[in-house]
Design a protein that fits this description.
four-stranded antiparallel β-sheet; 4 helices; alpha+beta; 137 residues; single chain
């Protein structure tokens, strides 16, 4: 629907990426059904306000991360999400791969609410005078 179709060539570099869900924001229990917590899987998720990409994150439990994000001022704006899974390898390899995928996604798709990341990534957001300049987006 969104990320997969925006830049399909980006995903050629991630052959193990599996798209699990694209659609409206669900109740917490239903989020677990779309991306069940598992020791052998890691997820990158994309949060949207309409068609606008708000945030990209990674997790072993998408529901847990969503519950934490629900405390953010921008959470009520979230209307939809997508989840991509990576599986395989030992814990270290899997965590390394999911971190690389998250960073690459932030750099490629430049979400409005991500505030962290290496300085060389164009998607990095910086706080100015104690304020996140993207909270108004």
């Amino acid at each position: 629907m969104r990320i997969r179709s925006i830049k399909p060539e980006f995903w050629d570099g991630w052959p193990g990426a599996e798209f699990l869900y694209t659609g409206p924001l669900l109740k917490w229990a239903d989020v677990d059904r779309t991306a069940p917590p598992a020791a052998d899987k890691r997820y990158v998720y994309f949060l949207y306000r309409g068609e606008d990409l708000l945030y990209i994150g990674k997790a072993w439990s998408v529901r847990y991360r969503f519950e934490k994000h629900a405390r953010k001022a921008w959470w009520p704006d979230v209307t939809a999400y997508e989840v991509v899974a990576l599986t395989g390898g030992d814990q270290w390899e899997l965590e390394t791969a999911i971190c690389a995928l998250e960073k690459a996604c932030i750099a490629e798709f430049v979400p409005m609410k991500n505030i962290a990341g290496p300085a060389y990534l164009p998607g990095r957001r910086l706080w100015v005078d104690g304020q996140n300049p993207h909270d108004q987006a």
